[in-house]
Amino acid sequence: IDHSFGPFYEEIEVGAIVVATGFELYPLKDIPEYGGGEIPDVIDALQFERLLAASGPTGGVVRRPSDGKIPKSVAFVHWVRSRDPEHGLLYCSGLCCMYLVKEAILYKQSVPDGKAFSFYIDIRTNGKGYEEFYERARENYDIVFIRGKPARIVQNGDKVQVWGTDTLTGNTIKLDVDMVVLAPAMIPSQSALELIKKLRLATDEYGWVKEQHLKLRPLEAMTSGIFIAGVAQYPKDITDTVAQASGAASKVLDLFSQPQIKRSPIIARVDADMCAGCGYCEKACAYEAIKVDPVLRVSQVNAALCEGCGACAAACPSGAVQLTNFFKNQLLAMVVEATREYE
Amino acid sequence: IDHSFGPFYEEIEVGAIVVATGFELYPLKDIPEYGGGEIPDVIDALQFERLLAASGPTGGVVRRPSDGKIPKSVAFVHWVRSRDPEHGLLYCSGLCCMYLVKEAILYKQSVPDGKAFSFYIDIRTNGKGYEEFYERARENYDIVFIRGKPARIVQNGDKVQVWGTDTLTGNTIKLDVDMVVLAPAMIPSQSALELIKKLRLATDEYGWVKEQHLKLRPLEAMTSGIFIAGVAQYPKDITDTVAQASGAASKVLDLFSQPQIKRSPIIARVDADMCAGCGYCEKACAYEAIKVDPVLRVSQVNAALCEGCGACAAACPSGAVQLTNFFKNQLLAMVVEATREYE
Lengths: 343, 343
Description:
CATH topology of the largest domain in chain A: FAD/NAD(P)-binding domain
Oligomer: homodimer
CATH architecture of the largest domain in chain A: 3-Layer(bba) Sandwich
Largest interface: A-B, 48 and 47 residues
Shape of chain A: elongated
Radius of gyration of chain A: 27 Å
CATH superfamily of the largest domain in chain A: FAD/NAD(P)-binding domain
Strand order of the largest sheet of chain A: 3-10-4-5-6
Largest sheet of chain A: 5 strands, parallel
Helix content of chain A: 10-25%
Number of strands of chain A: 18
Number of domains of chain A: 2
CATH class of the largest domain in chain A: Alpha Beta
């Protein structure tokens, strides 16, 4: 490895793209009820990971940020802005349960006389060996699991106070701890959103890349030739990411192994007499397959790029664009037949 | 499709195998506390799926097995023998939460004035769109979720009675319903266990196929040339199975795309003078790579099959088998160096 390499840009032509853009954590500053990033000893799980690392800022000794003391009690908070449609996101971030349990175990290994508390709504350990890991955390490491999401976290002298309710006992909780580790929701990274826009990929409302079919075609983006791996699609752990990445590779190989690419015969066609060159179709096309000819002022279709999605036909105000082999009258005939009453 | 085809056996030579043996449900007869399969209106989720199917025995009308009546109340029980190390299995079966929620929604669509109750420990909806689906079940379909695993299920007249505790309110529950749908734990199918034995694959204590590394090599079985897809590895849903199957395909392509297969230079070697032909090595080898020559009474290694795992060397009572390029004295030298005290 040549460490003297600086960043550089290179233009390369490719036949396929695998989008593997990963994630960011929901920023602490946007979580006011837990201190909004202002309480030094309330950190996120990635920051805690650094405190655990031998190559990290504390040389692997867990020290809390405010005064460098070894924290004798730590609260781990699952479900921060995940499954919280009122303040955050509706979805589950998928891996927080497992990595927070791991971090709690590592904390207890580092500070054996320390106390670890885990606040959760549901514990999600569906994966090979995951339940066993969670069992170990409770049995061997004496980590206290409390069902209930903290309502507030505040500074209290040199302690951090966690307010909440134990929903199993019904007791209200005010717990003073030395440090709090949050597992904020996973969100698509901002740079990913830029790339996704550039690739004209379809996404869901949160910015995760949309697949062609969640169950049957989870590896293919809506744009052909583009495949998805890892958290770009939605939060998933390393096991699932590695398996999916191999799957995406096989889809690329499949694409490249064909001597010719067979296309669906349904592609857009422009009636030049009707086309006013308004350009609505050009804006609607995700594949850059239809463009207004600047001289003729008439839209023209690049048959090799067209995916036959019909967005241009729907956008065309004059009906000049239709899909070859799938004209409106064909569609109407199908509707008539489907709704015909039989005796 | 030629439906007149009968079953037939064919011997084919292959260069790689993808093990995709699926699963069975934990049998109702082994669940005495829920009636042990003796209560006709306590069925498992697969049987309920058939009741929902338009091509099923009831033509898609949900009718309970005992008397064919349309059930006006149904209890759906998550976590039957999953995460229950005392009576069943420690692991989580991964998909029950989602398919039981689906079945409850389909029941409510089929019987809009029916009541659906869902008994759970943790709700596990970590997957794209899964939490949204669960939300819909609660909001739009009015399915009542009760946190607590039923203790017993008994026949009560023409009703089925579910005994349990709501662990959130602390209330004990005796609920009379027309039918109960259980989600028993997923277990490897018996035929899979036979095949796995034949392929000499490593498995975990439950019979799920062991992968080379859960995070980094989840697609490769411990025996090279054999890959894993789907629930053969551990319970996973359709999305993950499809992604993993594509991944397994790419591993096969990777294997086949090489003009020559490169092997590790560490393979077993037999010192013929020391070998007593006891055959312990033969029994220990997972790859059938070492065999006692019946004439010479000395073990011989098939270098092409040997994976260099060292099982034979460990099993050899006389020390006649060692690994080429990884002799015992090399290993000892490494231990000495690793434990040497530096000044």
